[in-house]
Amino acid sequence: MTAMPISYNQHIRRFQSLIALLVLCIVLSVLTDKFFTAANGLNVLKQVAVNICIATGMTLIVLTGGIDLSVGSVLALCGAFTAGLLQNGIAIPSADLFIGFTILGAVLVSVIAGALLGLFNGFVITSFKVPPFVATLAMLTIARGFTMLYTGGHPISNLGSGFAFIGTGSIIGIPVPVWIATAVVLLAVFITQKTRLGRYIYAIGGNEIAAKLSGIRINRVKLMVYSIGAALAALGGVIVTSRLDSAQPNAGISYELDAIAAVVIGGTSLTGGKGSVWGTVIGAIIIGVLNNGLVLLNVSPFWQQVVKGGVILLAVVIDKIGEKKE
Amino acid sequence: MRIKRSYWLALFCLLFFCHCKNKGTKHGSKKIAVVVSTLNNPWFVFLAETAAAKAKTLGYDAKIFDSQNNTALESDHFENIIVAGFDAILFNSTDANGSVANVLKAKTAGLPVFCMDREVNSNDPTSQILSDSYSGAVAIGKYFTQQLHKKGNYVELLGLVGDNNTWARSKGFHSVVDNYPGFKMVAQQSADFDRNKGLEVMESILQAHPDIDGVFCGNDAMAMGAYQALVSSGKAGKVKVFGFDGAEDVITSISENKVAATGMQFPKVMAETAAEFADAYIKGKRDFPKKIPVAVELVTAKNIGDYIAYGKK
Predict the structure, then answer these.
(1) Tally of domains within chain A
(2) What is the mean pLDDT of chain A?
(3) Do the domain assignments include residue A217?
(4) Percent of chain A with pLDDT strictly greater than 90
(5) Residue of chain A whose alpha carbon sits nearest to that of B158
(6) Is B196 close to A244, i.e. CB distance below 8 A?
(7) ipTM of this model?
(8) What is the CATH number of the domain that holds A119?
């Protein structure tokens, strides 16, 4: 069990992705004068906010040596749930009961619903020893199915200007999603670096058996990280729904891959135990800058996919070379 | 222990299938299968549901199969449908060429196939009721040139780059607009027919090209996303947005002068015609027109009163 959650080597690795981000920004600034502007900077941050939320949760999960493939579907389900609660509330005709929801109420209930889905993932993983990949793959399909059932396959639109503030408003010039993402990141950094839970997360990913022998209640920690991960995906769902003023049943498809890519580019090891939330934030921003830059340069959509894949590959290869040198 | 468990599992599966089978053959009525390319898009959900509903009102058991944009999965569906003894297939293909073999399989098994919206490149379907994307995009292109007074900078948002409809619409649009030297396409990007992607791509494009006059989008979901990007950058109203499909949000937006125009497709007409044809086939009719094109109509602020989502009033 490591006493210090972040070692010297991890600092270097964090540095690596930061350098990559700076190089990318410099190259794009040279190629187009539209890139390095305050407006575009905020634009990129606004666009990566959702991925940062999801990827932060994913980082905690990956640090324990797990993975969560269901985040995209959980995002869609909870986004739709928020929209449904706002528009229709919950009506139980048999009991002659109707519950309406305020914006805050709908958001809270959806995030809690997300956490419960994550708790279920964690339950299946810890109680039946199902590999996380398989358990969350099943949830990916189940949650998508429930989204379809709940929405009937149709978007839920026109949710009101109050709700739209979450996704489109700004406070002192900075978009609300960026504030939310910042709060999420700071909280996650605090958890991983300053709390017992954080140390346990690293310990389990580093060596699960050793962690168990030293008295850590592994299952409890795992239940916790999967719940947090899914709750953050649900929060992402709230932001996406609010930005679009519409809950799309097909929202969030392949978001899990973007989140995993951010985690990996940020230098977190997929086998667990090594990495940091900060790295993931930089990884997510790299992906966002790349998406934005390729559109600014009007690169053909065919080539964009090749370039994005190439960057992920490059990031991991550099990381592995660094690992060998250690 | 492990063996025992797998026995239980097998027994469970058996019970499950028996149950399904009972349910399916309980009444002696004939069965119609609706195979749809995807249920991840409201437009196709509407198409599939309308087809199934029409088949049910005509007195058939109807079941919807979702191919999830995957031709291989579609092939599995066809095999299952043939084995399960369905009497007709209402078909929305995943791919014009990739689905040819599947249709042939059904034809060989003696099952009639009625294509809806998307064409299959063979003579095997009993009849094809098709949406004319290309001509619809030509009509939008003409209206686009009028609205922008034959000159200006514009952006095109493409759908999924691997999809036939993406290119049929793009080509139809460009066949008109490219004739005017005053037009300049400053960006052509894909947003995967997705509202969120449309919003994000448009936000980025607006950074590079703040002074544009119009946006042509390959479907209505992207048009709504692009419109939202224009709203948040304060350009709504100055930039004209053009969509394609006739989805609910865009129909509302056209009536509020937020979106300039869309190409109305008629999923209801196509789905119901296909179901009626299948009914006629089962009752013994054999001569059907091989292809029935269903025109895509231009919807603008002028004629919006005649339309509702996915059809005419």
Answers:
(1) 1
(2) 91
(3) yes
(4) 69
(5) A301
(6) yes
(7) 0.76
(8) 1.10.3470
